[in-house]
Design goal:
By secondary structure, this protein is of the alpha/beta class. Helix content is about 40%, strand content about 20%. The protein contains 9 helices and 11 strands. Helix 1 packs across helix 5, helix 7 crosses helix 8 and helix 7 crosses helix 9. The N terminus is likely disordered.
Length: about 230
């Protein structure tokens, strides 16, 4: 199919600052998306129920319904990828958004090119996940791991850390959630312990594929497995 006849991904931009929304729309148009802008929170749900989109950029601070409430309501009838946009970087907002079903966060100020790239990444993650099984395979019964067809020697703790990330590629896991998977005896460990194990795991993965960053940090939240 010719490139100009390929179906375009549709993105909804929910942003009350008209100039920012217009700028983002221009960048998405250049990237072969079809953007639509809404500037007031009260108009989002009705529009979404009448229109289909592939992704939503959802600002938290909106007139009418705020982004947190909208995310909660959208998740009641749709699993469309949602990227929260916020100038508030405190951890409570981030975690609350994740619990409500947000797929990613973008913090202001941002680069429009970065926003487009992040949306593309989220859309790739929502595609069928067989591609992950081709590069990373865990045999949980035998405690064996292969990465790009090569055996990966992991400790028991590293294996337990990798299991939830591999089962749900793209999902962001908090450090507490990863701790619960790693240690069945409910021991208390610090965030630095998780970070240390992640560092060692990344080093082992990079020895096989130096150009890929399979485990990605999400600032202030935790980690996720991504397809680079």
């Amino acid at each position: 199919m010719p490139a100009n006849l390929m179906p375009k991904n549709k993105v909804l931009i929910v942003e009350d600052e008209v100039k920012i929304a217009s700028l983002l729309a221009d960048y998405f148009l250049q990237a072969q998306f079809t953007p639509h802008c809404i500037h007031h929170g009260d108009k989002v749900i009705e529009w979404l129920k009448a229109n289909q989109v592939d992704a939503i950029l959802l600002d938290i601070m909106l007139p009418g319904k705020d982004g947190i409430q909208l995310c909660k309501e959208i998740r009641q009838f749709s699993d469309v990828p949602i990227l929260m946009v916020t100038a508030r970087v405190d951890e409570i907002d981030r975690l609350l958004g994740l619990e409500l079903g947000a797929d990613d966060y973008i913090c202001k100020p941002f680069s429009p090119r970065e926003v487009v790239a992040r949306v593309k990444t989220v859309l790739r993650r929502t595609q069928p996940k067989e591609e992950f099984s081709e590069q990373l395979v865990l045999n949980e019964e035998r405690y064996q791991v292969t990465y790009h067809g090569r055996s990966l020697e992991l400790t028991a703790v590293e294996f337990q850390l990798l299991k939830p990330l591999n089962r749900e590629p793209g999902r962001i896991f908090t450090r507490d959630q990863l701790m619960d998977n790693m240690y069945s005896d409910n021991r208390i460990v610090s965030d630095r312990t998780i970070d240390s194990h992640i560092k060692k795991l990344r080093k082992k993965l990079s020895e096989i594929s130096p150009d890929e960053e399979l485990i990605q940090s999400v600032y202030g939240v935790g980690y996720r497995l991504v397809n680079s």
